[in-house]
């Protein structure tokens, strides 16, 4: 590019008319600025020195005094640096020329940098004893340098990547038409008739059909022809007839005007064409997505009293057969109740979209998502996206019925009513987190003994409920007169294969109380939530668990103690613990508060403990508690 700069400078100065002290235009300014924006910012000053070094010997060779030549190349270097830094800003990439705003910014920066050059060059002429050169530079310097930048620098800016409309043959035709018109106006026209406007139709046509870069090349060609004719006394801007400075000013004004107008036109048309293309692509993408969707899609307008279908995809026509018959009223297609449900949801949209399930007049169920997409004079336009969920709704209902039946069976396995035993009172409470819980309890009275058990199966839901029922049945199948450790061990042996196969476990506490003496024996399989309330002292004693749950261990021990009149033994699940903050201390405080009341019954204790806890936190686990109190 430095070689190009040298050649352009030499040709421009060599062809300088004898009546002018400065060249009629300055393409070197455009080449120099283009050179500056093609390299990284850190090389700007180095490039400026190179530009000065290349131009200095040429100016001296063509007759400029050395001091003046040095001052002029210094001004050119400053012009290049200022223009480059302003165009680049803080970016290292080439400045872009995408929009009219980019062009306006470029022209303003060109005006600033060329004005600076004009001031510096005029000062150099004046200080070196050439006031006429200073005056001519002030009159024409800014226009000449700005025209050079406007014509050549856009060729080196980052162009838009828009597809041009013209093919190869049409492009060649535009070039021939424009160059031919310019030649006729500026070369073969020997009068001062204002015929420069004749070039505009061909240039406008090129701006509409060619790329911005191709248009810039054509403008350079037109400017070169106009400059050649004007220098040689031809065309509407002939220097020998208008006078040098006046001719230069008119010529450069013409060149700047065609650049500003035609590049703006090219960028505007290109931008609109690109926007139109994107809209077309977006519309095409929407159309393909709309028509190929496996779900039904409708575009419908909701008027004051009805829904009218505007567009439907093939899946919608399969789901709503009336669409194939030309029906467009949504109430006729779906049914009164379904459309009423849609209207109700449309009236209460949150975020302009909603998802509902509606039942059609023929009994089918559709899951519908709806969204507002615009307003029309006749009403609001919606898009409806739906699919048939009749079968899944039927299966869900069957599953719900099965769960309810399983819950009924599980409830039937719990004690129907607590046994009445002289000298003893019993209380129990259970509430699953879902319809089917993993907690269970049992109370058995056999001769002079009471057996209490409470278990908690890992997990919740149907699987946990089935395992809880199996564990309770296993315990019930064993002799209630056996010791707790024997009962737990035998139950574990019954369940062990199933527990290991499904990688599950059960925590369990089993207590056998002698109703005559009050002595009790207890075996804990990893549960650890059983308490003895001593009413005489008000203390709450927790019996620690040292053995593993069923499914994880193979040996369970038993311990013993005695209940005195007024004492109570309480078994709870971890759901109760969670509802008292997950803290044993908090649970013990609550137990003491509820159990140490005058005349309180075990049922009142478990009801208060579980009911108050339910109010404190969300239901996240099963709640079960069973209590036995010695009254005499």
From TrEMBL:
Primary localization: membrane
Presence of keyword ATP-binding: no
Keyword terms, alphabetized: Cell membrane, Hydrolase, Membrane, Transmembrane, Transmembrane helix
InterPro entries with a match to the protein in the record: Bact_Sigma-Reg, MASE1, PPM-type-like_dom_sf, PPM-type_phosphatase-like_dom
Chain ranges passing through the membrane: 43-62, 68-87, 107-128, 187-208, 215-239, 251-270
Residue ranges annotated for the PPM-type phosphatase domain, each copy included: 421-630
Matches recorded under Pfam families: MASE1 (PF05231), SpoIIE (PF07228)
Membrane topology according to the record: Multi-pass membrane protein
GO MF term list: phosphatase activity
A Gene Ontology cellular-component term: plasma membrane
Subcellular location: Cell membrane
Stretches assigned to coiled coil: none
Protein name: SpoIIE-like protein
Organism whose genome encodes this protein: Mycolicibacterium rhodesiae (strain NBB3)
